[in-house]
Amino acid sequence: MLVRPVVRNGYAYGPLALEDFRILPDVAGPVRRIREAGYLTVLATNQPGISRGMRDWETLSRMHALLRETVPLDAVMVCPHTDRDGCECRKPKAGMLREAAARLSIDLAASYFVGDTDRDVEAALAAGVTPVLLDTDYNQGVTAAHRVASLEVAADLITRR
Ligand SMILES: [Zn+2]
Questions:
Q1: Which domains does the chain have, with CATH numbers?
Q2: If you measure from the C-alpha of residue 80 to the centroid of ligand 1, how many angstroms do you get, rounded to a whole number?
Q3: pTM above 0.70, yes or no
Q4: How much distance in Å is there from the Cα of 127 to the middle of ligand 1?
Q5: Which parts of the chain register pLDDT below 70?
Q6: CA-to-CA distance for 51 and 84, rounded, in angstroms?
Q7: Helix (H) or strand (E) segment spanning residue 106
Q8: CB 50 within 8 A of CB 80
């Protein structure tokens, strides 16, 4: 969770328009710390709005370019599908994590996946990665090995090893 969500009809979504795109404060520092501790940093994001025609690749690519100006990411993995597409990349499947691992020679068993939903936790477990759940009011029913208050605390946990 690096970008401020936009709430529509009571649900939180990623921003569709470039003018709504805001990087959350206090995310660049923790990601940088994790990277400086020797980890590669990869964003893996479900973007079903592309398949639904609500979002276009060009705007999303520009958002990710802006994000990477501030947050040091080694790769950005995008699943553009919905559940109905039956792809292998949409979280809770592990496709994006496995592809990133193959591309960047990442040791999944020595890796962490920080997320905020049950889909993130399941994708991590399916890939053999240790899940770290960011505590939110909407994920209280989700079980994970690690539940942390913020990305800052996640960085503390990951860099301690
Ligand atoms: Zn997909």
A1: 6-160 (3.40.50.1000)
A2: 5
A3: yes
A4: 15
A5: 161
A6: 10
A7: none
A8: yes
